[in-house]
Design a protein that fits this description.
homotetramer, 251 residues, nine-stranded mixed β-sheet, 10 strands
């Protein structure tokens, strides 16, 4: 409950298509990760310390020291999931289970750490055809909807549609519709181990979605929601043998 | 697990607009309750014994003897919720808590028994303007989707949209979209006490929705899902005082 | 996300048995409500403005002006639930649905507002016989467990046991065991409308439970968790008719 | 809803300690898998076709043809989880996601297929010291509790205690207490993909738990609950591209 220590956020992005595709570069001249980092800084200001990391940094910018000092990791990847090293994916999974927040954006649904944490295929329906997306709040008591209108529009967007093969979310916050009549559970909370995961589907490299006022707000809200101030002392590293009387005799 | 005793289903309907509105009468010449009862008989056959009851029957057709011998009650009402006596609404609520299945259809979301069981306003967004509804399965592991396609269309339908003010469903089975871009949690499961509740939103008096092949199947599936074969012996009628040693000394 | 405005907490208590029973008065000389208010002040300090209200205050101390300016209401009652006026119970229920946090303590499980919000009997098993209660964290990713050990002991306590007839909690945080071998879902979260409800079972007038270091911490954590900074603008006051084009044509 | 085709159940067991440990052999002379298979046959009779498979069968007895013709797989393993081939574990996981029921018993919580499906460590607290286990129903509306008393006793049992590092169960059915005061979420439902998973913790090789009347009943109930009669036609094998108009133009 000590609000004084800033939330240490690491914004991870592939940062490749921004280098090679002029359309994307025009929308995100500093890379999508910088735009996302900016949304968090804009809304949370001094409450956070935001840094970025990308696929082509050494160790993908996610070595042990970085993960250890990250309270919330946001993840955007799309075409290069397979280039993420298995041991880094495993380390991210473990850090989430140990209490790190994890905000997974858009095509990150197929990233290695998210799939490992979900245990399902994480597949979905899709179309890239300038759909209109409407994002509806279905859980107005949830902190992630703070200052977000009951419904907002993303003018042009990739369609993501059901069935989205994830476990039933522990909390469902948003449902989206698309021009074609598809629906999607676009804001989903999952608690895993001591960590907190928010999946938020809006966002695509070909559209300026991360400049959208409400999308930016949701991402900032999600960072606050996902942050665990002090991970629980529960020991999950092993199966703990507790002989008769262990509780009474603990120091 | 004894499948031999038939499931005793009571299909309840207001059966008023069918008498006064020729449009409705043409679609549902025997009343909507008979059409709904027919769907259950069609799919479940000898596995069920289906009877009907309506608002203008004595005691709304739901006296103690009827409720006591009902395994699953389906409910359709719309314009006359206030004409349901409070004591009947309370008795239905109690029977659900005691182990009766309760399948609430469409405008039944504002019925007295459903509102009492939910504890919320049960309000929603609506429009009657010949919308197309698409009903999407978001829980393919759920028995209620058995033999239902991943998405199906209802050509003309009243729009029901979010925010739907019910508790977060214990299981979410369907999400619908409408022509206007609205979304709705159209198939929702709630467990309450020893009873099981399924809310299914498709269905309206001005549209032939209860003749729709997949809607009929979902209703039959919901009856099977909601049925509790043998209500649990857990005592919920009072707060049970259990003196030290009660478990060891029980007969 | 503006953390500057304090959380306005109203601590409600019956404050009758404290006046008549010397055992209780010795444990809680200023009333249980003052002890509970002290726990919140101790942990949250300037982040909250805490006031108290009791059954025998005019309007139970919960008139419209008080409720309107309460962000989180905590509730302790036991022997006099029936003395709470129905309209006050209804007003509390409505304020929760409109975005107030509601922290229900111990025997408050049978209070009118809680029962109205749950829709079930809220009955349970009980015994007053100096049981030892162990409170186990089963959701280490949850903010309510912040700075609470994986298990803690309450040396003497009333037993509350299953089956506890509430809806399946939206999040389950604690499970307790008792000397007799009973178990209880002792920390339960419910989201209802725009409001957030936490039920926490430890606490009894004959035992000094509200002086317990971890119980005090959980109550403070629950206040933070239940607080909705800015209730969602979603309109739940009525069924909202939304004619075709309403979204495109909104101002 | 066609109840005529029997449920094809495969009961999988390690069947090693039964060969080497005379204590275990005396309790389970035909192997634990045969005792478990017997429980299912006893309660479900002609409604099931039950076969068994063990670790040392070729391909662990779980080749593609077996999995393809298994509606529900039950799993007991303890000391030799690592001897299960990774590709078999992956195939079991995939079959669950494709619609197979999966009933995981006791120490199966650390089995490869279960851990892959959960995405968490699945660690827990434990003690082997002749604890008394009490198993409490906390969800009396659930089919798995059919004909099971509100609480039942297992006289001597290994203790499994919280924190149990699994995702929050989609439905929580049983909570157990132990002599030492520990608690455990002993009956947990998870829906994953098109499949249904039930974890049930009672059962240990050194105790005659699988001869216990209520344990046997729960396992049979769980088989019925986990069975998906006809897996949903939802395509989860890949991300499905759905060009504009795909729904309207489908054959």
């Amino acid at each position: 409950m000590n609000e004084k220590r800033p939330i240490r956020v690491t914004v991870w992005g592939e940062n490749r298509v921004e280098q090679t595709n002029p359309v994307v570069r025009e929308i995100y001249p500093d890379g999508m990760h910088e735009t996302i980092a900016g949304a968090i800084r804009e809304h949370l200001g001094e409450r956070t310390e935001v840094r970025t990391a990308t696929l082509d940094d050494p160790g993908h910018g996610l070595d042990g020291a970085v993960l250890e000092t990250t309270d919330v990791l946001t993840w955007w990847g799309h075409l290069f999931h397979e280039d993420v090293a298995d041991d880094v994916a495993a380390a991210v999974q473990q850090r989430v289970l140990d209490g790190m927040g994890f905000v997974v954006l858009h095509s990150g649904h197929l990233s290695k750490p998210f799939k490992r944490l979900m245990g399902t295929s994480c597949n979905l329906r899709w179309r890239e055809a300038d759909d209109r997306e409407l994002v509806w709040t279905v859980n107005p008591a949830h902190p992630v909807v703070q200052s977000v209108p009951p419904v907002f529009e993303i003018e042009r967007q990739e369609m993501y549609g059901e069935f989205f093969d994830v476990p039933p979310p522990d909390e469902l916050v948003f449902i989206s519709s698309f021009t074609g009549g598809e629906v999607f559970r676009s804001g989903c909370c999952f608690l895993r181990g001591k960590g907190r995961i928010f999946f938020f589907s809006p966002g695509h490299e070909d559209y300026p979605v991360y400049h959208h006022v409400h999308v930016r707000r949701v991402i900032a809200n999600a960072v606050l929601w996902a942050r665990v101030e002090q991970p629980s002392p529960v020991d999950t590293s092993t199966c703990v043998e507790s002989p008769r009387g262990w509780f009474e005799e603990r120091a």
